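[Automated response] Your request has been received and processed.

Submitted sequence:
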Amino acid sequence: MDAHIEIKHMPKMYLAYVTCIGPQNLERSYEKLIQWATSLGLMGIHTKPVTMYHDSFKDTEYHKVWMSACLMLKEPVNTEGEIKMKSIDSGKYIVGRYEIGMDEFAKSWTELFGWMNDQGYRKADKEPFEIYYNNFKEHPEQKAIIDLCIPIQ
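Generated structure:
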């Protein structure tokens, strides 16, 4: 499992999102979000899926972790119902680019947090997230190409 890890200044991001409890509900949340975005013509090359974690898997039972399925948009839009809009301020992040299978996410996050500690960085009081660059179901090896992003002080 190779990763390219760097410190990056991430720009302000606009995220349309649906929250859910547990990874078992994440795909359904993305389906709702993508259906909504498609109906408004918001899906395009610059629209990236993002999963934001509000709880830690270390501190919360797997099926109870609070998370958000998000779509990164160019600008804020009006939302309704369970689809909400928020912005994430620009800031400094540890960004690890990975190409991993679905069973390698936990190990990759552990590796990235370990790298953070080894390098002497401290996590900022913001949520970590994943930015997806492909549909793993369409990858020949069923792998996700992602950035794991940890906000740092």
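Summary generated for your ticket: DSSP finds two helices and eight strands in the chain. Strands lie at 3-10, 13-21, 48-53, 66-73, 84-88, 91-101, 129-132, 143-151.
If you did not submit this request, please reply to this message.
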